[in-house]
C-alpha cells in the first residue's frame, strides 16, 4: 500500500530568506471520470424461469436461472443469472438436490460509476419436481425467488466544490472506493492533481485536509524538523449496508480558498516614494510579464545597492514574523545573477526589464512561457522589494526634519515622549508627561535635534505626590507613560502594548489588595498583548491584560508599533541584543548598512530604547541613526 497523503507546511530559513512548502505524496486510490457501464449481460444458453415447465432430459450441458438481486437497503439492483453446470444437471437427473453458486452482481449507479455486490445467500440449493416439471430454490430450508446482496466494491462519485461559494468545480468517479481493504469502511479521496482530465484549479488548495490552526500553533524554534502537519488526508467514511444504486455513493469535498501571492515593488528617490506597484496572483495562476516602469534617470541618480531591501511575510505562519534582508549581496542575488534571463515586456535601451527581473528573483520560480507560476509554497506570501536611488547632487542640510522619541530623566524613572518632530540642529519644546497622582515641577523641557536623528534633553523633572484624598484614574492614551500612582492601591488607566520574552509569563489576580499567582493560566512566550491598566503594589508594577489578570513589569517589555529604516554607524560591528538584553554573540550588523525595523521596544530595568530588526533581535537606538 502506498503512503497516505501528508500535507506539510515547513519553514526553511537559509541565508536570511524564509520559504515554506506544502508537499503531497500519491494516494492509494485512482480517480477517473469513467463512462463504463456494468449492466449484467444476458447469457447465451437455455434460460430456466421460476414456474416454467421443462424436461431435465432436454437440457444441454449448462443452463441459467434469472433471479432478482436486491441491496441490503431493499432497493432492486439487477437481474442476475445462476449458472447450472453439467454436474448440477447430473445431480438433478439423479433426483438429488444440487448446490448452486450465487452470481456476482454488477450494476451502474444512478450517479454514474459502478457497484459490485455478492449475495448473502451462500447456501442455495435447487430441487426439481418431476411431476410439475418445475424447480424450486432453497436457502437452507426456505424457498427463495430473490437474493439479497452485500456491497463488495464500486466507485464513489466525488463532487469537488469551492468551500466559500459552495459552487461545484468538478465531479469524478473514484474507482475501488468501496473495496474491502485494511482501511475498513472508508477511503482516501484523490486530489485533483492526481486526476488526468481534471480542469486547472486556480486560487484554491487541492483536496487536502489542511489544519490551519495547527500551522499557526507550530513552534519552529522547538520543532524545526517536524513542521506543521495535518492529521490525515481527506478520508470519507461510509456504511456499505446503506449503499445502493440510488443513494449514499456520492460525497462532497470542499476546497479551501488560498490567500494570494502578493509582490510589492517600491522605488525611492532620496528616501521619497518614486514608483510603486502591487502585483497579486492566485495560487496555480501565472504572473505575466510587466511593462517596464520609468526609473530614475541614471545620469542624475545612483542606485544604492547596499540599501536594497527585501522582506517576506507568510500569512499561514504568522509566528515567523517578517523576514528582512538588505545589502549588496542581496542585490546581486536578485538582479546581477538573473539579469538577462528574463524576457522583456518593453525593455529600455535593450536592457532586460528591471521590474520583471525583480519579480523573478524574489519569487525563486522558473519561468514558464515568460511567466512566473504561483506554486503552493507561495500561497499567502507577501514579498516586498525596495530600491533606493540617491540624487547625485543631493546634499543633506540641517533643515531636514526627523521624528524620534525623547527620553526625560525624572525621580520616578525615565519618561519617554514618543514621536516628537523637529529640524536637525534646532532646539524644540517638549511637553512633560503627566503621571496620575503627581505634579511635575515644569510643564515643558527644551530638547535638541541632533545630526544623527536623535532628540535629547539634559533637563530633569521632579514629580511630587499630589495632595488629594483619592486619586482618580487618569485616561492616559500614551503607550509610553510607564508610571502609576505609587501612593494608592487603585489602578490607573493605561493604553499600551507589551510583549513577553523567551519564557511563559505568570499571571496574577488581585485578591484583598494583594497579588496572588494564577495557577491555571500563563501568557505564552514571545507573544504580544494590549494592556489597559497599570497598578503598583509593594513597589512592583503590574499591567492588566484581561479582567483581573495582571503581569509583572520585569516579566515583559513595552513597545510601540512603528516601522522604518535604521542605519548602522561606521564601526566594525553593531551589536544585537535579545529582549532580555542579552548580547547575541554569533552575529551583528555590518557597518554603514540599512535595516528595516517593525517596532520600538524599551528593554531592561532602565527601559532603554531599542529597534527590533528580527523576531527576537534588537539594536540599541544609541548605536544607530535614522534618516
UniProtKB/TrEMBL annotation:
Region (Disordered) location: 468-489
Segment forming the signal sequence: 1-26
Alphabetical UniProt keywords: Signal
Record InterPro entries: SlpA_C_lactobacillus (IPR024968)
Residue ranges constituting the S-layer protein C-terminal domain according to the UniProt record: 500-552
Coiled-coil intervals, chain numbering: none
Low complexity: compositionally biased ranges: 474-489
The name this protein goes by in its record: S-layer protein C-terminal domain-containing protein
Amino acid at each position: 500500500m502506498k503512503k497516505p497523503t501528508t500535507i506539510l507546511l515547513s519553514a526553511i530559513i537559509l541565508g536570511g530568506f524564509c520559504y515554506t512548502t506544502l508537499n503531497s505524496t500519491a494516494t492509494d486510490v485512482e480517480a477517473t471520470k469513467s463512462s463504463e457501464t456494468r449492466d449484467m449481460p444476458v447469457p447465451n444458453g437455455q434460460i430456466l424461469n421460476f414456474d416454467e415447465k421443462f424436461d431435465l432430459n432436454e437440457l444441454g450441458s449448462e443452463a441459467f436461472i434469472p433471479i432478482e438481486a436486491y441491496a441490503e437497503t431493499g432497493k432492486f439492483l439487477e437481474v442476475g443469472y445462476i449458472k447450472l453446470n453439467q454436474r448440477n444437471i447430473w445431480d438433478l437427473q439423479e433426483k438429488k438436490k444440487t448446490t448452486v453458486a450465487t452470481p456476482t452482481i454488477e450494476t451502474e449507479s444512478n450517479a454514474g460509476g459502478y457497484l459490485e455486490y455478492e449475495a448473502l445467500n451462500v447456501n442455495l440449493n435447487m430441487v426439481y419436481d418431476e411431476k410439475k416439471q418445475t424447480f424450486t430454490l432453497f436457502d437452507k430450508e426456505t424457498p427463495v425467488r430473490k437474493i439479497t446482496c452485500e456491497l463488495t466494491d464500486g466507485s464513489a462519485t466525488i463532487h469537488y466544490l469551492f468551500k466559500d461559494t459552495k459552487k461545484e468545480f468538478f465531479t469524478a468517479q473514484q474507482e475501488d472506493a468501496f473495496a474491502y481493504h485494511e482501511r475498513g469502511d472508508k477511503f482516501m479521496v484523490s486530489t485533483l492533481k492526481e486526476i488526468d482530465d481534471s480542469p486547472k484549479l486556480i486560487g484554491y488548495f487541492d483536496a487536502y485536509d489542511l489544519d490551519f490552526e495547527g500551522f499557526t500553533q507550530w513552534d519552529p524554534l522547538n520543532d524545526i524538523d517536524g513542521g506543521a502537519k495535518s492529521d490525515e488526508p481527506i478520508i470519507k467514511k461510509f456504511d456499505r449496508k446503506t449503499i445502493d444504486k440510488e443513494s449514499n455513493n456520492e460525497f462532497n469535498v470542499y476546497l479551501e480558498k488560498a490567500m494570494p501571492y502578493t509582490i510589492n515593488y517600491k522605488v525611492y528617490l532620496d528616501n521619497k516614494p518614486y514608483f510603486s506597484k502591487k502585483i497579486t496572483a492566485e495560487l496555480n495562476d501565472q504572473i505575466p510579464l510587466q511593462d517596464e516602469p520609468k526609473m530614475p534617470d541614471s545620469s542624475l541618480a545612483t542606485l544604492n545597492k547596499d540599501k536594497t531591501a527585501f522582506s517576506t511575510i507568510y500569512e499561514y505562519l504568522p509566528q515567523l514574523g517578517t523576514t528582512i534582508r538588505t545589502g549588496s549581496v542581496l542585490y546581486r542575488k536578485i538582479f546581477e545573477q538573473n539579469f538577462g534571463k528574463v524576457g522583456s515586456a518593453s525593455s529600455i535601451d535593450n536592457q532586460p526589464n528591471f521590474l520583471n527581473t525583480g519579480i523573478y528573483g524574489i519569487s525563486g520560480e522558473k519561468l514558464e512561457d515568460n511567466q512566473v507560476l504561483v506554486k503552493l509554497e507561495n500561497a499567502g506570501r507577501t514579498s516586498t522589494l525596495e530600491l533606493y536611488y540617491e540624487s547625485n547632487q543631493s546634499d543633506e542640510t540641517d533643515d531636514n526634519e526627523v521624528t524620534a522619541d525623547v527620553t526625560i530623566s525624572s525621580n520616578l524613572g525615565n519618561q519617554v515622549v514618543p514621536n516628537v518632530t523637529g529640524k536637525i540642529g534646532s532646539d524644540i519644546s517638549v511637553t512633560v508627561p503627566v503621571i496620575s497622582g503627581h505634579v511635575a515641577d515644569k510643564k515643558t523641557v527644551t530638547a535638541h535635534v541632533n545630526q544623527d536623528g536623535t532628540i535629547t534633553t539634559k533637563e530633569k523633572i521632579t514629580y511630587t505626590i499630589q495632595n488629594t484624598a483619592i486619586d482618580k484614574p487618569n485616561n492616559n492614551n500614551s503607550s509610553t507613560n510607564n508610571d502609576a500612582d505609587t501612593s494608592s492601591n487603585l489602578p490607573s488607566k493605561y493604553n499600551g502594548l507589551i510583549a513577553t520574552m523567551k519564557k511563559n509569563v505568570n499571571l496574577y489576580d488581585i485578591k484583598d489588595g494583594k497579588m496572588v499567582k494564577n495557577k491555571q493560566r500563563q501568557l505564552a512566550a514571545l507573544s504580544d498583548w494590549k494592556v489597559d491598566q497599570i497598578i503598583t503594589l509593594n513597589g512592583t508594577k503590574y499591567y492588566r491584560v484581561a479582567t483581573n489578570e495582571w503581569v509583572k513589569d520585569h516579566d515583559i517589555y513595552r513597545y510601540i508599533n512603528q516601522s522604518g529604516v535604521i542605519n548602522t554607524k561606521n564601526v566594525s560591528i553593531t551589536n544585537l541584543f535579545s529582549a532580555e538584553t542579552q548580547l547575541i554573540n554569533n552575529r551583528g550588523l555590518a557597518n554603514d548598512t540599512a535595516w528595516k525595523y517593525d517596532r520600538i521596544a524599551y528593554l531592561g530595568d532602565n527601559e532603554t530604547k531599542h529597534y527590533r530588526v528580527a523576531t527576537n533581535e534588537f539594536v540599541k537606538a544609541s548605536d544607530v541613526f535614522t534618516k
